[in-house]
Amino acid sequence: MSPLEFFADHTYRIVFAGTVVIGLVAGALGSFAYLRKQSLISDVISHAALPGTLIAFLTAVVVLGTDGRSMLGLILGAVVVGTLAVLAANGLTQATKIRIDTAMAISLTVFFGAGMLLLRVISNGDYPGKGGIADYLFGNASVITVADLVTSAVVGGLALLVMGVFWKEFALRTFDPAHTSALGFRASAVDALMFITIVIATVIGVKAVGLVLMVAFVITPPAAARQWTSTLRSMVALSAAIGAVGSGTGAYLSIVLGVPTGPAIVLTLFGIFAVSIAASPRRSVIMRGLARARARAALRRELLAETGATSGGSVASAGAGGSVPGTRSDGVGQS
Amino acid sequence: MSTPTAARTRSLSVAYRSTPVLRNVDLDVPEGVVLGIVGPNGAGKSTLLKAMLGLVRPLTGTSEFFGRPLSQVRQRVAYMPQSASVDWDFPATVSGVVGMGTYGRLGWLRRPGRTEHEATLRALEHVGIADLAERQIGELSGGQRQRTFLARALAQHPDLLLMDEPFQGVDARSQQAIVAVLHAMRSQGRTVVLVHHDLATVRDYCDHVALLNERLVAAGPVGEAFTRENVRTTYDVTDTDALADLLT
After folding, report:
1. Is residue A332's pLDDT more than 50?
2. In chain A, which residue's Cα lies nearest the Cα of B101?
């Protein structure tokens, strides 16, 4: 399918736009989770979002008598319960000697397990619109409606706005928590703002790409962007771009190849990440290895020259021995 | 009291869970001095700074700065944490980190402008790292990191600077640069409190000293308080050779 045909189709356009919005927002805000070394926090949020979305569904259908699959209700339920799950993990760490990775795993599975039970209750019951809710697990980009797209764009845009308005505070807190407090900022207030934006970045994608894979949207773009950038500003911008481009490309490929959208995007993002860690000029595995080899060769020449200067007899052989690796590594450096 | 104090604690105690770290510390820091806090590992030196700044909650006691609670004079007081307390692989340049020192005066929402930019440049020059301004912080040596943190504190233009182990992992050249800045601050009537662990340099760097080991053993001008007897009590050493090792 050519791009022209792709964009002529209304459903495909919506899928494309929806996933680009998700990728952009998650990529930008995921940078802060990444830099605070809380990558798994979005995994906790997305898994705990399952019972949240289902409670929202039940509330909408049973109590309010409206459409249970509306994006806004879904986001609200996911934000509330996702937040509870993270607070539970943090509380467990503070009250006991259990470490945060364990606490997160416990919290994630408990909330997810409760969600699976609730899912069964709903699918056994007689609720209008229950057909689509199993999609929350693995996502289904083709069920995104225009209203969903508008809702996620507005909510995601608000989260980006919060990031922009409190940029200075976010940067300060992410780099040096103690210094933030010493300067007189309420650290808990900055944390709450930052956390709510990360929650939003995570839950707006649940319907389209599924809660299981959502963590990849939050973490892979910043991990890739970090390899190429040296300031927070450029990292967040590039991470958002990688998220958007990777999601759009993955969505296009998924439709052309007839495979699910979420996995196609995750693999596309991984491709970008793999290229980044292999080839970025300053931080890549290959470039660092080359730089180290060059430095070692130069050091070896220097050391050999020293021995040559003190014991005159072996100058020729030492010089020759030193120059071979030297020329080789210079050649590699130029290529 | 005749001389004004930059900082004062009364009955300041801190416990981590139920283990006491500081017991009833009464410390007066006169204005315009360089005061070194010395004591053995685990004596509560860093905790004392953090408790004064409200970064850890005291179990008992109070702290005040220039005769007022911290909240009223927050911008006159700068804190330089140990450089190991942050991840230096953060995407930022040296001038970006130093600029953060100006954020406190700005408060919420206001963005740094020309004034802040100039304060950042002055601070970089003051500690002698203006040439590193655009350098990635991940590429700095230990001494350059400490000077970056010092410049960040200076960008705040504080009247009192509290420093936690500023000479940790620092080469001789950076150490001299840092000491020069401290003495320049003193000559402007500003005050420096530093946690220090090298007893041999106390007399060169500091004019006042506080000897701490959970309790405040002694405090005052170096000539009066920094006696062999006080050091012996603080470090709990009995034999003379060990004491001589500490002091040289």
Report:
1. no
2. A183
What is the tally of structural domains in chain B?
1
User: How does pLDDT run across A32-46, given as a tens digit for each residue?
Assistant: 999 998 888 888 998
CATH code, domain with B30: 3.40.50.300
Q: Which of B55, B77, B97 sits opposite A178 (nearest CB)?
A: B55
Inform me whether the C-beta atom of residue B133 falls under 8 Å from chain A C-beta atoms: no
**Which value, in Å, is the radius of gyration of the alpha carbons in chain A?**
25
- How high is the pLDDT of residue A313? 47
Note whether B127 and B154 are within 8 A (CB).
yes
Residue B241 has pLDDT above 80, yes or no: no
Mean pLDDT (whole number) for A224-235: 94
Domain identity same for A101 and A143: yes
pLDDT at A335: 35
- State the pLDDT at residue A310: 60
Name the one residue in this structure whose structure tokens are 């990775």: A101
Are A125 and A209 found together in one domain? yes
Instruction: Compute the nearest-CA separation of A194 from chain B (Å).
Output: 14
Written as six digits, the tokens of A270 are 């991984």
Structural domain harbouring B17: 5-247
Residue B222: CB atoms within 10 A of its CB come to 19
Q: Which of A279, A298, A321 is the last residue of a domain?
A: A279
Q: Do the bridges between strand B5-16 and strand B60-65 make them parallel or antiparallel, or are there none, so unpaired?
A: antiparallel
Nearest residue of chain B to residue A234 (CA atoms): B91
Distance from C-alpha of A70 to C-alpha of B53, rounded to nearest angstrom: 48
Collect all residues of chain A within an 8 Å Cβ-Cβ radius of residue B86. Answer: 175-176
Q: Give pLDDT, residue A7.
A: 87
C-alpha to C-alpha distance for B68 and B5, rounded to whole angstroms: 10
